[in-house]
Design brief:
Length: about 300
Amino acid sequence: MGSQQGRACAGSICQSVAGAGLADTRSRWPRLSAFASGPIRGRGAAREIIRHYTHLSERIDGLAHEAGVPTASLLELHLRMTIAGAGAEPLLEPAVLLVATGLDGAPGLSLVRGLPGTNDHGSPWLVRRSEPEVGFASLDLTLPWLATAVAGVNTCGLCVMWLPGVIDGAVESDAPPFPLLVQECLQRFENVAAAVDWCTSRHASGHGAIVLADAAGAVARVEAIRCDRHVHLSEELPLALGRPIRLAETLLETARHEGLLDEKALAVRGGSGSPIAFVRLTSTDRGLQLKRLESPVQEVVLRL
């Protein structure tokens, strides 16, 4: 896992690693030491990723190997994904998320999330198809260097999205980053109930929320504040979360009274002044839609 993404995105991965001030040149010499050894992989949160998230640590190693960067550097970049200003943007830029039934007349549940970071030169976001040897295939929205997903839908119709919380300093913990659980849920589970149990029991830390929906109509969100988890079940739909609050309120009102997605509201510029795009997951038809909302308008729809 990770090899094809590493080859296809090698330039972007090298740029992200170097931009974070990490070593970006992989040694040509083979190593006989254990994988979970050394100053990064042998201790702390990186060691915990290898211990508790075996499939994702293998994916990180595949990404690093094919991109030609040290595995330890890419692991370190993953550890920083919930620390503001540490090179993990646009993961932490404010975004809003909407959950609704029958949105725009589509059957079943839809999850929609704004995607800051798009500009006139393109977008950092990419879509991949994950096909693990064990578990469910999925369509994922991610970044070139990222092993986990920001949003995705699997072959069972389970939809999962990550929404960043308010960062109030670094998380003092040796636990792996909470967003790693997005890919874990997509690979392992058919429904919301099983995924929520996994999200509340696994070793992880961070600030933000994982929102889940399945083909049977179940919805849940798991909020993380450092190492604490809070589960919200059976919430009234439509549901809007995130920042800026006025944007979330606008999306909620339009969805509640008209049953429509207010794309104009999603197109409001973020604090960085960059154009906004969005990703939409649909549980019933296992679909993923991406749309850029400013000129040139671009859209792609994929289904499993």
